[in-house]
UniProtKB/TrEMBL annotation:
The keyword Signal applies. The lineage of its organism: Bacteria, Pseudomonadati, Pseudomonadota, Alphaproteobacteria, Hyphomicrobiales. InterPro entries: RmlC_Cupin_sf (IPR011051). Keywords: Signal. It comes from the Bacteria. This is Cupin domain-containing protein. Residues 1-31 form the signal peptide.
């Protein structure tokens, strides 16, 4: 199944309903200081590779090349002036024609009858934060600019520009926030149970 690029109209609706991450540039930070959330690309798959899994982020010269090189658990997208291929698979993998940027993992294991793979991009001005929420699976972060913070029952974790952070397992309550002195711009990559709501309200109390 080919990845589905999400339409601008649908993005406009989802930006207010998803408590995750999405397509954003620092120039688009709302004046009211909200954490901007928009999905970039997603697809559903029936099976995942065996063993410990990592998200591999690679750059390609063109979107067509990235799409042509994509495997069953890959997502290709044009983000921030670069073409990206996100692949969920074993550690130390490589895609012919791609330039590896980073590898994130291992991600928390998940078992489902069908899986949703999704890439979101998001953030906002220093201090903005998401509502407290959960996801029915795992997520991984790669920071393009600024600094991301994630508060969970396990404590608070941070990642700065050019670095990564592995999220916790399914149904972990979390609050994500822009923790730096400049606007946060970051990618979040998910593998979740496709049969459950992507994001649900939660509490850290």
């Amino acid at each position: 199944m080919k990845p589905r690029l999400i339409s601008a109209r649908r993005i406009g609706v989802l930006i207010f309903s998803l408590c995750a991450f999405g397509l954003m540039t620092s120039a688009s930070v709302p004046a009211d200081g909200k954490f901007v959330v928009e999905p970039v690309v997603e697809k559903k798959v029936k099976e995942l590779p065996s063993g410990p899994l990592y998200w591999r982020l690679e750059n390609f010269p063109t979107l067509e090349q990235a799409q042509g090189a994509a495997g069953p658990t890959s997502l290709a997208a044009d983000i921030a002036g670069k073409v990206w291929l996100f692949t969920l698979g074993p550690k130390d993998g490589a895609t012919p024609g791609g330039t590896k940027v980073v590898e994130i993992g291992p991600v928390a294991p998940i078992s489902a009858s069908e899986y949703l793979l999704r890439v979101n991009r998001g953030g906002g001005a220093p201090g903005v934060k998401t509502a407290i929420h959960t996801h029915p699976g795992s997520e991984a972060f790669y920071v393009l600019a600024g600094k991301v913070g994630q508060r969970t029952p396990h404590g608070v974790s941070y990642a700065e520009a050019g670095t990564t952070m592995v999220g916790h397992g399914a149904d972990t309550p979390m609050e994500v926030f822009s923790a730096g002195t400049v606007a946060l711009d970051q990618l979040a990559v998910f593998v979740v149970d496709a049969d459950r709501p992507f994001s649900s309200p939660a509490s850290l109390d």
